[in-house]
Amino acid sequence: MRFVLTLLGAAVFSTSALAAGYKESKMGDLSNDGLSPTMVKLRVGANIIDGDDGVHGGVIDRDYFRIKLGAGQALASIVLDPKTKVGNNFSFIGVQKGKQVTVDPDGGDPSHLLGWDHFSTADEGTDILPRICNGAGAIGCTPPLGPGNYSFWVQETSSCDCHYRFIFNVTGADTDADDNDTP
């Protein structure tokens, strides 16, 4: 009986652990449309968001995803993992408060973004959220980011097999709030 309960507990833990974060190689391509970003569920603790970007066949592979932080939760940091591979010099990440990124990716106005940053391999292992919050021309923010919906946009404009891996660190209590809230 103890063996069965142990297996059942391990299965529940494994399912729960896999329910947070996103890995494109296992879960499919993140949305290429800022108006319909992929929902990425996060849990309290470290959450990996892992994707590929760059220019392929003359087309920029942009990734858009959305997170929701429940009551009492906060996004404390976004750490660039050493498994990241950028193009020529840097890649781009932007964030807009709400359920969409409405900024035109081809020269849009950053004043509608909460923040943005250019990150490079020199940033591996560091928290880039403070720099995102201070992106020039953006609305701006102060970490940690509190409860609500946030939509992210990641892109690389070099022809490369670029790869990013972020660690989104969430603090607070896990919640099971529904997704029908307003931004």
Walk me through this protein's architecture.
The chain has 183 residues and is of the alpha+beta class. The chain has one domain: Jelly Rolls (Sandwich), CATH 2.60.120. The protein contains three helices and ten strands; from the N terminus they run αβαβββββββαββ. Strands 1, 3, 4, 6 and 10 form a five-stranded mixed sheet that branches. Strands 2-5-9-7-8 form a five-stranded mixed sheet. The longest helix has 17 residues, at 2-18. The chain is globular, with a radius of gyration of 17 Å. Mean pLDDT is 84; it is low at 1-19.
Briefly summarize what is shown.
This protein has helices at about 1-20, 25, 130-135, and strands spanning about 20-25, 40, 45-55, 60, 65-70, 75-80, 90-95, 115-120, 150-155, 160-170.
Task: Give the secondary structure arrangement, pairings included.
Layout: H1 2-18, E1 22-23, H2 24-27, E2 38-39, E3 45-56, E4 59-61, E5 63-69, E6 74-80, E7 91-97, E8 115-119, H3 129-133, E9 148-155, E10 162-171
Keywords:
single chain, 183 residues, alpha+beta, Jelly Rolls, five-stranded mixed beta sheet, 10 strands, 14% helix, globular, disordered N terminus
The largest β sheet comes out as: 5 strands, mixed
Write down the secondary-structure element order: HEHEEEEEEEHEE
What's the mean pLDDT score? 84
CATH architecture: Sandwich
What is the count of DSSP helices, taking H or I runs of 4+ residues? 3
